[in-house]
Fold:
Amino acid sequence: KDIKRESFFAALTEQEKALSLKKENENKFRTIWIAVISVLVTIISVSNALLMSVTERFKEIGTMKCLGALSSFIRQLFLIESALIGITGSFVGTLLGAIFTMLVFAFSFSFASVFGSVNYFSLLIYSLAAITIGTFLSIVAAIYPANVAAKMVPATALRTNV
Structure:
């Protein structure tokens, strides 16, 4: 960076270097903060969706427990459901994000230069990482609702009207 700039302009002063470093650190902090908020929103949303699922299925859970289903089975049922939600949501989000980004750059520059310069192997690796992380976060978010469903008393669940 500095070599290119110095060939056209004068060298950066110490104050300019310090200001540039400060702005760079602020941008890193802002990016991390946005990522943390996004993860928290994701976890809360999936947890809320699964708590609603537990609430809507009180009688089904009570019936399964009356018929001999173990608490671990009920817990696994909700964890598998959340994993499917996570895989589906992460896959669709990754696919739409990649396509949208590539199309925006393709219209801004040219289709040939954008689609010719994409490293598809890296894109695949990052996509798999995003899907894995999304699925993991979905399963983490489902732990509380799954435990609520597993600890439900069958008689109380059957008496409840939702």
